[in-house]
Amino acid sequence: MTEKEIVNDLSWKIGGEAGMGILNAGMMFAKIAMRGGLFSIAHAIYPSLIRGGHNHLDVRVNSEKIYSHRKEVNVLVALNKETFDVHKEKLTGGAGVIYDHDEYPIQESELPKKDIQLIPIPLLKLSNQFGGRIMRNTVAIGATIALVDYDLTLFNDILQQTFAKKGEKVVQDNIGAAKAGYDFVKSTLRHSFKYTLKKEHQKNFMLISGNEAISLGAVRAGAKFIAAYPMTPASSIMMTLAKWAQQYGIVVKQTEDEIAAMNMVVGANFAGVRALTATSGGGFSLMVEAFGLAAITEVPLVVVEAQRPGPATGMATQSGQGDLHFVLHAAPDDFPRIVIAPGDIIECYQEAIRAFNLAEKYQLPVVLLTDKYLGESYWSIEEFDTGKVKIDRGKLLTDEQAEQQQNYLRYKLTSDGVSPRAIPGQKNCMHTASSYEHNEEGHEDELEEVRIAMAEKRYKRFEATQKEFSDPELVGDKGAEVTIIGWGSTKSGILEAMKSLKRDKIKVNYLQIKYLSPFPTKKVAEIIKKSKKTALVENNQSGQLGALIKMHTGLSLDHTILKFDGRPFFPHEIYDEIKKIVKR
Amino acid sequence: MEKDIGSGQVPTWCPGCGDYVILGSLKAAITELGLDLHNTVIVSGIGCGSKTPHFIRAYGFEGLHGRTLPVATGIKLSNHELNVIVIGGDGDGYGIGGNHFMHTARRNLNITYIIQNNEVYGLTKGQYSPTSMKGFVSPSTPEGALEEPVNPITLSISAGATFVARSHSMDLGYTKQMIKEGIQHKGFAVIDVFQLCPTYNKIINAQFFRENLYKLGPDHDVTHKVKAFEKGLEHYPKIPYGVFYKEEGKPTYEEGLPQLKEKVLVKQNISAVDISPLLKKFR
Ligand SMILES: Cc1ncc(C[n+]2csc(CCOP(=O)(O)OP(=O)(O)O)c2C)c(N)n1
Ligand code: SF4
Fold first, then answer.
1. Chain A CA closest to residue B257
2. Is A388 among the domain residues?
3. How many domains does chain A have?
4. In the predicted model, what is the mean pLDDT of residues A113-141?
5. End of a domain among A451, A467, A483?
6. Residue A83 covered by a domain
């Protein structure tokens, strides 16, 4: 091959039907890359069904930090013909297609470009020697490793760890299947392949999804009760925590519906336990009334809303950012809520912990707003320090403090609006919390002045929370031609696009708004006013953050880059649009 | 034990409302059982009767209409040493909260659930309720209700409640006794209390109670599920009351959770949870 070799910059895609084990295979390949000291990202797209349909998963590997998946494909593992047909246009020059020629032949004439290599492998035949069809993935990954000239022992270790529980035979079958794929490619490949992987200095990496990072944060923050109803893309939070429940003394309750989940979490928090629920937009719709219940009873509450496109069932397994206004306004009347949108894995972890602290400190509901892309994709990140965390329970009374109370008032009017909080079991502080408007004691009361005092009390706490949040920061170039503004998971696509723009010597910077309520009005206005041109990037149809910015600052943004096809941004989509804006 | 466990708040129910009697019987039951008020939580929903927690000097939670049982479940699982008593109307429990009722019953948490069953929606001014008799004329059913009423007894038994009883609001002493038995029962106890609502239910009145209700005799075998169910089917015109069904020794939901064996959840120390062992799984 004449072309220059590309080392440690690979986009690998595996595709097939649901039920073929695409997700597991992809995760394994991402881990193989990571264990060799490389950065990797795994992002899957799958339809809402259990068998059939088209599933595909991208693994992107690089020796430098990468933020996002991308569109181009350098190695395509096609477990059926459809995978090739759907994705062939994404193949780059010098790319390779691993497929089973015996089962679904692909002709050279079908290739969109000349310099793509077809790599026919008898996947089924080889897998049948080691335990059947289901091993085709393993054979294909073995083949990939040979193709990109990587280290098969990394794969063997992972197979060993993954299947150890199932016994030595299963382990050996898998290792055999991997080797068969590897050997087949090594013995049949006619010339060297353009894309290769080389091990680098071992790093302290872990491969982790946003949902897992939130789960870790919840455990670290001391969450002991999780009630939820399964709904993609939030379900893996409940399942992850269920796995850890015995070890950490956590109760995980799958409920009859989201209404029950939210009300249980309100009950648990009322009883003094840090509790969590997680859902997507449809489930949150059912939780809305109890979300308001938490607000009026001043019970701390943390809910994860992992967005998917709607309305109604929408696109169950796809991604989007269409629920921003919904969570900002959910439930009747005015009341303060904190809304935090983490943009990457580390923020998922840190903000989850922050959410629990803030919920208790200010006794109000906190929403962690994520989406399918962030929640269910995997990034390799350096292991983070889990030691230094402050658990702040605010004005929760100790049993001793409670016992000394005289004429305890649960909703006492205080200067910061936060009242001392007693929980059942504590002496001398018995009170009733009510979903009705109430007085300082907690009893129903509709007198005008009581209503005003309580409504103002609720908002006072909100003002007090402002000091908890750092101002949003601009990252990127000084004197940027374009300031990109976004929230949540678009961070990954934006940062990746910025790398390419930098290569082109285009100066841009990026404002990530992580705290959406309370809104950092002053700072955002200041940044917008100072920027030459602004571009809003959102994964929704109407530009909800843009409207929010307008509402708070009165300022409109110059350009909008919106995507609402249910897929997260590819970096090049942002890059292309910014280029156009710069040219204008 | 304090003598008066009232909160000082005064109920404003209509004169003759059965909720006064049910409140009185609940207070007497708590007092006679010697429950610590600070270890007792009374959870209610929304409705006339759901105001009850405000009148007792225990912990209370007056939540949303129909959502009593999930709140109570969250409280109980967080601190299973608490006495958790739930009280609410028939609309609250069998109507809007019906789904929670069915699922909470089969979980068998150690919770006592009292339903103030006046066969009508009191607080919203007299519409028919899930337990209203067929043909019940109300402002929302001027031609008479078409549905068969919910049968609280057979519903509870089939859903898996392990203590199922009925009382009525003209007998404070017996209602107190039923509530006491319900609280003492280890498991999910349902006590459906026929309640007078002189304002909106003109059919279920004192005369109706006298003519139609009869107490279950000592010959009724409360441990026999099928017979209990059969008794529960006796609905109109003659309605039995008393304990229909009692299943002892069935493990509660809490007992099925090993993580609650050592300590109640709320007493766990959360100041420095070490999650470093979990990180290994991601390497
Ligand atoms: C979600 C919701 N829907 C409707 C209402 C209005 N509402 C309040 S109480 C009630 C019914 C009351 O009947 P019941 O539960 O039998 O209690 P009662 O007043 O008879 O004691 C209704 C429909 C509400 N508070 N919340
Ligand atoms: S309307 Fe009926 S239930 Fe409500 S207070 Fe009056 S009598 Fe009691």
1. A251
2. no
3. 4
4. 95
5. A467
6. yes
Same-domain status, A106 and A178:
yes
Atom of ligand 2 nearest to the CA of B123: 4
Task: For the beta carbon of residue A92, count every other beta carbon within 10 angstroms.
Answer: 17
Residue B3 pLDDT:
67
Residues A230 and A328 in one domain: yes
Ligand lying closest to the C-alpha of residue B169 = 2
Residue A447 burial class via C-beta count within 10 angstroms: exposed 0-12, middle 13-18, buried 19 and up: exposed
B239-256 pLDDT tens trace: 999 999 999 999 999 999
Q: Which ligand is nearest to the CA of B92?
A: 1
CATH topology (fold) of B2-281: Rossmann fold (3.40.50)
User: Domain range for residue A374?
Assistant: 210-382
Rounded Cα distance, A546 and A539, in Å: 12
Q: Say yes or no for a CB contact (<8 Å) between B54 and A272.
A: no
Let me know whether A495 and A569 are in one domain.
yes
Tell me the ipTM for this assembly.
0.98
pTM above 0.80, yes or no: yes
Task: Tell me how far apart the alpha carbons of residues B124 and A238 are, in angstroms, rounded to a whole number.
Answer: 38
**A450 found inside a domain:** yes
Closest CA to B195 of B215, B216, B166, B173: B166
Mean pLDDT across the stretch B117-139? 97
Q: Is residue A394 part of a domain?
A: no
Cα(B27)–Cα(B179) distance, integer angstroms: 10
Same-domain status, A490 and A439: no
Helix (H) or strand (E) holding A34: helix A22-35
Q: Which of B9, B37, B43 sits opposite A430 (nearest CB)?
A: B37
Ligand 1 centroid to B121 CA: how many Å?
A: 6
A2 has a pLDDT exceeding 60: no
B88 CB less than 6 Å from ligand 2? no
Q: Is B121 in the pocket of ligand 2 (CB under 6 A)?
A: no
User: CB of B273 within 8 Å of any CB in chain A?
Assistant: yes
Q: Whose CA is nearest to atom 20 of ligand 1?
A: B122
